[in-house]
Write a structure and sequence with these properties.
The complex is a heterodimer of chains A (114) and B (113). Chain A is mainly beta. In chain A, 0% of the residues lie in helices and 51% in strands. Chain B is globular, with a radius of gyration of 14 Å. The chains are: A mainly beta (114), B mainly beta (113). Chain A binds chain B through residues 1, 4, 31, 33, 41-45, 48, 56, 58, 92, 94, 96, 100-108, 110, and chain B through 31-32, 34, 36, 41-46, 49, 51, 89, 91, 93, 98-106.
């Protein structure tokens, strides 16, 4: 199974600032995704991170607010820009194994915006 | 648009009981279905994956079934233990190149010692 790590594990940020979350996978995955989990809720897909090209965003999420990079098969970043308290959530990175179609998740980044 | 529902939202059982968690989805055109476990403040751990052509999968005390035509899946946990306490999430993947997961809202399970 793939092991996925994220940095930072948590952060407290001021309104109007930006935070970049890093995601590293220990083996190659075909697809990488970024999810948001708001307090007490289930997971919502933000975007699919595409290697070497622009991410594919879900309805309600835009590149200016959540720029994503994926320079290679095992690394991706998500930036939460111009943060507001409504952005306080857990952000989870995920990768899909090309061999089993199983999707694996990182431990999440708990973001609090004051 | 695919919608995934999990019932019940919360469940509390005494240790040793067998239990069933339910998941239903509105669009039967799925690629596969995956059950996850999430401990408080943590990420998701994959438990079982069922391909659309399969009827069930087993891992230890866990058994997941899939009835694609009726849009239902169940997760059966045998001889529950306090360590099984967590939120259990069901997610379906749609076919095609996108293949994103759509999640249910989860069942919060508490196993009492």
């Amino acid at each position: 199974s793939a092991v996925i790590s994220q940095k930072p594990s948590r952060d407290i940020c001021q309104r109007g600032t930006s935070l970049t979350i890093q995601c590293q996978v220990d083996s190659q995955v075909t697809m990488m995704f970024w999810y948001r989990q708001q307090p007490g809720q289930s997971l919502t897909l933000i975007a699919t991170a595409n290697q070497g090209s622009e991410a594919t965003y879900e309805s309600g999420f835009v590149i200016d607010k959540f720029p994503i990079s994926r320079p290679n098969l095992t690394f991706s970043t998500l930036t939460v820009s111009n943060m507001s308290p409504e952005d306080s959530s857990i952000y989870l990175c995920s990768g899909m194994s090309p061999y089993t179609d199983t999707q694996y998740f990182g431990p999440g980044t708990r973001l609090t915006v004051l | 648009k695919q919608e995934v529902t999990q019932i019940p939202a919360a469940l509390s059982v005494p240790e040793g009981e067998n239990l069933v968690l339910n998941c239903s989805f509105t669009d039967s055109a799925i690629y596969n279905l995956q059950w996850f476990r999430q401990d408080p403040g943590k990420g998701l751990t994959s438990l079982l994956l069922i391909q659309s052509s399969q009827r069930e999968q087993t891992s230890g005390r866990l058994n997941a079934s899939l009835d694609k035509s009726s849009g239902r899946s169940t997760l059966y946990i045998a001889a529950s233990q306090p360590g099984d306490s967590a939120t259990y999430l069901c997610a379906v993947r749609r076919p095609g190149s996108a293949r994103q997961l759509t999640f249910g809202s989860g069942t919060q399970l508490t196993v009492l010692p």
